[in-house]
Amino acid sequence: MEFLFTPEALISLLTLTILEIVLGIDNIVFISILAGKLP
């Protein structure tokens, strides 16, 4: 389990987390725009 706490592993985990958050927000905005266009 030591490999989880290397700087490379922490940086990649942080990058993935940020990407997930950004893409999640992007999807929420996209879905709300689509829902707004529905009759």
Describe the structure.
Helices cover 79% and strands 0% of the residues. It is an all-alpha fold and 39 residues long. It has one domain (2-36). It is rod-shaped, with a radius of gyration of 17 Å. The protein starts with 6 loop residues before the first helix and ends with a helix. The model has no long low-confidence stretch (mean pLDDT 91).
Number of helices: 1
The largest pleated sheet is described as: none
Q: N- to C-terminal separation?
A: 53 Å
What is the residue-mean pLDDT, rounded to a whole number? 91
Instruction: Calculate Rg over CA atoms.
Output: 17 Å
Supply the number of structural domains: 1
Q: Which series of helices and strands comes N to C? A: H
Low-confidence stretches: none
Classification by helices and strands: mainly alpha
Report the sheet-strand fraction.
under 5%
Q: Total strand count, please?
A: 0
Tell me, what's the shape? Answer: rod-shaped
Q: Which bin fits the share of residues in helices?
A: over 70%
Walk me through the topology.
Layout (H helix, E strand, L loop, with lengths): L6 H31 L2
Give the gist of this structure.
This protein is an all-alpha fold and 39 residues long. The protein has one domain (2-36). It has one helix spanning 7-37.
Using brief descriptors, characterize the structure shown.
39 residues; mainly alpha; 79% helix; 0% strand
